[in-house]
Write a structure and sequence with these properties.
Radius of gyration of chain B: 20 Å
Helix content of chain B: 25-40%
Number of domains of chain B: 2
Number of domains of chain A: 1
Number of helices of chain B: 13
Oligomer: heterotetramer
Structural class of chain B: alpha/beta
Helix content of chain A: 40-55%
Strand content of chain B: 15-25%
Number of helices of chain A: 11
Mean pLDDT of chain A: 97
CATH superfamily of chain A: Thiamin diphosphate (ThDP)-binding fold, Pyr/PP domains
Low-confidence stretches of chain A: none
Bound molecules: thiamine diphosphate, magnesium ion
Distance between the termini of chain A: 47 Å
Largest sheet of chain B: 7 strands, mixed
Order of helices and strands of chain A: HHEHHHEHEEEHEHEHHH
Order of helices and strands of chain B: EHEHEHEHHEHEHEHEEEHEEHEHEHH
Mean pLDDT of chain B: 97
Shape of chain A: globular
Shape of chain B: globular
CATH class of chain A: Alpha Beta
Radius of gyration of chain A: 19 Å
CATH superfamily of the largest domain in chain B: Thiamin diphosphate (ThDP)-binding fold, Pyr/PP domains
């Protein structure tokens, strides 16, 4: 894997931005400044960034209720996102989407989605467009372990395999669907096995390790671009925070969570790996940390100062002219 | 120039024209190709379960006419994703009853993505679907569920009552940048009528005064337009002259056209082959008692199917559906 | 005897009583247990995403309180099959918006099996589901889709406006031998009120006159009842006395109660937090201009959400929902 | 496998009845005497009968649009069925269901189903009832190869496996979904493989051989009764007639159909096997053939003479009192 220093710093910046974004949101909700249902991505950064670092604006991704990370990884403007969560007119969706529907098609980000599993056929359709228009674009879908129990998962992967579409289906197996441990509701050990029902290729990555995700996703993306069909890529990961902001986390073993957070933090793993390889200096990373902090402070200040949407906008954008 | 075609053939012609004039138009659905055409054999494709898409794969190839697995949710969701990214898909939901297994891509995706994304996406999707009773297909293949799609903000829903409208409405639907549900009522499918040649559109949202009367207004759409027209004949024989308004578009609703005929006649009966609750008939009646209140001389009556599933037995199905006699009797009772 | 409970706790109490009095009652849904309770640890189960089913697994065990995978179609279909064969399931559809991925078991199975089988089966199924806006949950978690279930023959749909009704209606729903959709409006969920102790039912199909006025009729249900009551307060201050009718049951609809208040007042406004097309508001208005025509002194107005998805931003969501001010203003305009 | 002479004659009677029933229906439709959509089961008799011979009235089966065979195999009254198809008040569903919804819960037959895949969760629910009420009943679901592409298949089998329900999922792989060959839309060779996604047991039977179906279904049913969980049983079969009555059959190779019909007729295979084993006499079978013919003639005559439903029945049975 040949990642340039620039690429590494970029990846780190995105991962750090995601982490800081989510930590800020938690604070903001607890301070009563943000409303709505917020599902935070902290802990899973290596997945979004490991995959999206290899995509261009014309490649499409779809996401889930837990969508901030995918947006940031795909290059959606952080200030626009923050303004969106504050429900401002300057938000990336004009304040109409909010956390669960945050999107920016200009960056190829076809939306978070409040319906578990619903992004999967959207991706399949984007891949169909790529194939029929012969663009060599790929479409990548992020979804959770829980979503693999939805009929839409089954129907979409089957179709994509039949049509050999340029799609990558990335399941973020974080061990829980809401409060229910994955093993209560998914009777196979590796979700990647489900690809066999569709004669689809599959792979399993360590979702806490940017480099492992990068490599395996890269192979899947390249196969897709070459017209060799879709892949189901399972990334084993963990969410560091609750299912939603406000989740008391009473249902999961504290030691289990501690262990992941202390020993398997994707940012720490990244930092250790690049340090060991001597690819970047620690000071570079600390500089990024500082820049990210400043960016978020600005984003929040600007969002708070931004205008609220005009009430007339309620009836705008329902239909295209 | 025009010639006589069935509604099914008129739809086929519209699809062909749409595909010829825009390379982004594709068809997908279950058996829209319909098997056949394996290499090196003389098999024939079926072109859909009632033959509506017959011949299109020969002209446009399997890249633009796609047979899907029996996966309605997946295929509609795929069509939404394709529409959001540059294609202009025409998806077939074989029977409208199958909304049961495919509502989400319409309800929560196609209808809402543009709004949720602050206007940044267009979903130029058409969903063609057979609806209605009249073929003894019983409870799960005979429903008129257009009230569900018409009720969802972000979708449009149209329904033709004759072959010429079918062609023009379908062309308009495909070229609309919004998701449009195009209903194909079984009562209309095999009806034959004059259909203009060439490329034309019937605008969405515009009702058609199918008959001018002036004494009473009959409002119908799809399969109930022929019923209302027959009722108008029955009434004319008794000296009652009826306006017959064909809605053509269920969402958006042409409110002005409804109010115009009501203002003229003061008396309105709406005929809908769907069930009575939460439907188009109630919307029309509610419009009359809201914006049309000052025009009303009589109650507004709804002639609909009963609040029951569609029964199988031919005698029951016939009694279940609105009839010209029931419509005429309803008008007579209004006095 | 009664004490103050939130609607959520009243629902919990109804579930407990139903399960205590009938061993065939089971609960199933996503996270109705809610994780926890692994052997040998001190984990706690969540009892649903808003805690409504909390504690029930402790009392009744995992055989009667079942966490399902995130598979709404599968879980509702399973509940229908269980209901048809001797259980009395209470299934939870976490948010009503998820009807998109679970309509078929209701539309084509629960609602129709009895009819299609010539009366040979009963489907004693209850589906509990959160509906409505008010929590900034945006377009896909805020819909009031009761018009879809109310429109389907074979289903019943009820919606409480306060904790006491929630308990009694839910007990009636569970004991009904038909599939009943029990809506839990977000606007009502955390409302606190007096709830009688013990076992009682609020009959399905019977509306409640929540306030007696006589000058104008306000018809609401679920979250719009408190809104209508506040509007009545505003109007009373101006000397206009309003009847406030709480429908409680959307299907069947208590037509007589609506006509009774209309006959008294001659003027009716219906308040519905759902979108305007094909909804309960239209049905009420259509009833007024049909059977209630002779009572009408004014147009019937519908105060609803606009024909748009639910926006996220708090200011937009507030303006999107019907308000007491809008209801009062609508009444004033009727003059 | 120890089948008594009585059991064998019973199985043959059911298979022959199904075949004759379907042949009669085809005639009746072509003579304009029957309406509606009719999907005939001829050719697949060994599946329904091989499975249902091992079920009692308290065991539940669900079926598909192609449901006559399952009804007859499960013991639904043939005369009541015929009257139903004639839309008579004496029909087993009072004329309200018709072919696609034919049912008789008194025989544990929970209905044909016009919605592909919709019977699958109904079975899962029936199995849940059996488990929770500890009845030792089983629930058996019949569905086609095409139905395995439905989300309901995926969601239901996953749930049944998680809960170890006493269910048997019988997929009748007849090589086509309507006009589309199975291999166009199902990218795995054996549908039985799909069980792996749910860590469910699976098996494959020769669906043209009553004895093979009987044996493998028997094992699955017994496992279910013993509380050892569900099985996906794939039966390879073929439909001898069109997808529906009126199907011109232009889309399938004539030689392929001929081959199945000439060489793999389940009735002939059954007859050959029992003859070889000397278990029943040919004359026994011919006697049954005659009795079946007479039964169907009576059924038709009685159905034609039976009263039509009263129009008031349209509003009956929508709700239970
Ligand atoms: C169709 C649907 N069902 C249920 C929900 C409620 N819900 C939101 S997130 C969630 C859990 C999703 O689990 P998973 O797919 O593993 O993603 P994760 O939250 O772990 O990232 C559920 C059940 C939903 N939003 N949509
Ligand atoms: C949900 C749904 N989609 C589509 C149809 C239309 N349809 C009826 S039968 C059929 C083919 C079913 O194929 P398969 O499951 O293999 O069963 P077979 O007919 O071969 O017995 C289709 C597509 C339907 N009835 N229901
Ligand atoms: Mg998860
Ligand atoms: Mg098949």
């Amino acid at each position: 894997m040949q990642l340039s220093r620039e690429q590494l710093l970029d990846a780190y910046t995105r991962m750090r931005t995601i982490r800081a974004f989510e930590e800020k949101l938690e604070e903001l909700v607890k301070a009563g400044k943000l409303g709505g249902f917020l599902h935070l991505y902290a802990g899973e950064e290596a997945v979004a960034v490991g995959v999206c670092s290899q995509l261009g604006n014309a490649d499409i991704v779809t996401s889930t209720h837990r969508g901030h990370g995918h947006c940031i990884a795909k290059g959606v403007d952080v200030k626009g996102m923050m303004a969106e969560l504050f429900g401002r007119a300057t938000g990336v969706c004009k304040g109409k989407g909010g956390s669960m529907h945050i999107a920016d098609v200009d960056c190829g980000m076809l939306g978070a989605n409040g319906i578990v599993g619903a992004g999967i056929p959207l991706t399949t359709g984007a891949a169909l467009t790529a194939k029929l228009k012969k663009t060599e674009n790929v479409a990548v879908c992020f979804f959770g372990d829980g979503a693999t129990n939805q009929g839409q998962f089954h129907e979409s992967l089957n179709m994509a395999s039949n049509w050999k579409l340029p799609a990558v289906y990335v399941v973020e197996n974080n061990g829980f669907g809401e409060f229910t441990p994955t093993e209560y509701v998914v009777p196979v050990k590796d979700i990647a096995e489900r690809a066999r029902s569709y004669a689809m290729r599959s792979d399993i990555a360590d979702g806490m390790d940017f480099f492992d995700v990068y490599e395996r996703a890269g192979e899947a993306i390249e196969r897709a671009r070459r017209g060799e069909g879709p892949t189901l890529l399972e990334c084993k990961t963990y969410r560091f925070m609750g299912h939603f902001v406000g989740d008391p986390l009473v249902y999961r073993p504290k030691e289990e969570a501690e262990d992941w957070i202390q020993n398997r933090d994707p940012l720490q793993i990244f930092e250790a790996k690049v340090a060991e390889a001597g690819l970047v200096e620690e000071s570079d990373l600390r500089e990024i940390d500082g820049a990210v902090t400043r960016l978020l402070e600005e984003a929040i200040a600007e969002a708070e100062a931004a205008p609220l949407p005009d009430l007339s906008s309620i009836l705008a954008d329902v239909y295209a002219e | 120039m025009s010639r006589k075609l069935s509604t099914g053939r008129a739809i086929n012609e519209a699809l062909r024209i749409a595909m010829e004039t825009d390379p982004d138009v594709i068809l997908l659905g279950e058996d829209v190709v319909g098997g056949g055409t394996l290499e090196g054999d003389d098999l024939e494709e079926m072109g859909g379960v009632v033959g509506t898409t017959k011949g299109l794969v020969k002209q446009f190839g399997r890249d633009r006419v796609l047979d899907t697995p029996i996966s309605e949710m997946g295929l509609l969701g795929t069509a939404v994703g394709a529409a959001a990214t540059g294609l202009r898909p025409v998806a077939e939901l074989m029977f409208m009853d199958f909304l049961g297994v495919s509502l989400d891509p319409l309800l929560n995706q196609a209808a809402k993505l543009r709004y949720m994304f602050g206007g940044k996406v267009r979903i130029p999707l058409t969903v063609r679907t057979l609806c209605g009773a009249g073929m003894q297909a019983a409870a799960q293949h005979s429903q008129s569920l257009y009230w569900i799609t018409a009720g969802i903000p972000g979708l449009k829903t149209v329904i033709p009552s004759n072959p010429a409208d079918a062609k023009g409405l379908l062309l308009a639907a495909i070229r609309d940048d919004n998701p449009v549900v195009f209903c194909e009522p079984k009562l209309v499918l095999n009806q034959v009528g004059e259909v203009p040649e060439g490329d034309y559109e019937v605008p969405i949202g515009v009702a058609n005064l199918a008959r001018e009367g002036g004494d009473v207004s009959l409002v119908g759409f799809g399969g109930t337009v022929p019923i209302a027209l027959r009722a108008a004949d029955l009434l004319a024989a008794e000296g009652i002259q009826a306006d017959v308004l064909d809605l053509r578009s269920l969402a958006p609703l042409d409110e002005e056209a409804i109010l115009t005929t009501l203002e003229k006649t003061g008396s309105l009966v709406v005929v809908d082959e769907s069930t009575p609750r939460c439907g188009i008939a109630s919307d029309v009646a509610a419009l009359c008692v809201d914006r049309g209140f000052d025009f009303l001389n009589t109650p507004v009556r709804r002639v609909t199917a009963p609040h029951a599933p569609v029964p199988f037995s031919a005698v029951l199905e016939k009694a279940y559906l609105p009839s010209a006699e029931r419509v005429a009797a309803t008008v007579r009772e209004l006095g």
